[in-house]
Amino acid sequence: MLSTPEGFRMLVNNYSQPLYWHVRRLVVSHDDAQDVLQETFLKVYKSLSTLREIASLKAWLYRIATNEAMRMLGRNTPASCSIDDAGADLLALKADDYTDYTHLEAVRLQQAINSLPAKQRVAFNLRYYDDMSYEDIAQVTDSTPSNVKVNYHLAKNKIIKYLDSHD
């Protein structure tokens, strides 16, 4: 069903928006998120025949999107980003027409999330924004549920610390 043009169109219609926002939270820029989403759906289309279970469709899609976002981040940014470096990203965020930055707390939360290492950022975003289970996140990240829990809790604690120190 998914390998038919109608099935693929339905898949794109159902998952474009949630995948866009997932990717957008990782790469920040609207244009980069659009590029990643396009690459994601190209890979999905080429790989539909490898999908074994329809039950794992969501995790499979998020895994491809996450890998594409990480690949883009690896091409566009240095390997590590400190909290101090996040200021430059914030200027780019504020110039983005697609984001409402009138709420200071939302800006600070995004700065805190962007300061996290990639594994923690992905685990936090998938759990907090996409409400995924630890098991599904483990499938997306090719990890174990216990590692995902550790990364999520480390991320949460770092975010709290970041927000507390920037009052």
Question: What would your notes on this structure say?
Answer:
By secondary structure, the chain is mainly α. It is built from 8 helices and no strands. The longest helix has 23 residues, at 5-27. It is globular and about 55 Å long. Residues 78-95 have low confidence and may be disordered.
Average of pLDDT: 84
The percentage helix is: over 70%
Span from first to last CA?
52 Å
Query: Radius of gyration, Cα only, in angstroms?
Result: 16 Å
Order of helices and strands: HHHHHHHH
How many distinct beta strands? 0
| Overall 3D shape | globular
The biggest sheet amounts to:
none
Which parts are unreliable, with pLDDT below 50 for 5 consecutive residues or more? 78-95
Task: Kindly name the structural category.
Answer: mainly alpha
How much β-strand is present in the residues?
under 5%
Total helices: the number is 8
Summed up, what is this model?
This protein is an all-alpha fold and 167 residues long.
From the structure above, extract its key features.
72% helix; mainly alpha; 167 residues; globular; 0% strand; 8 helices
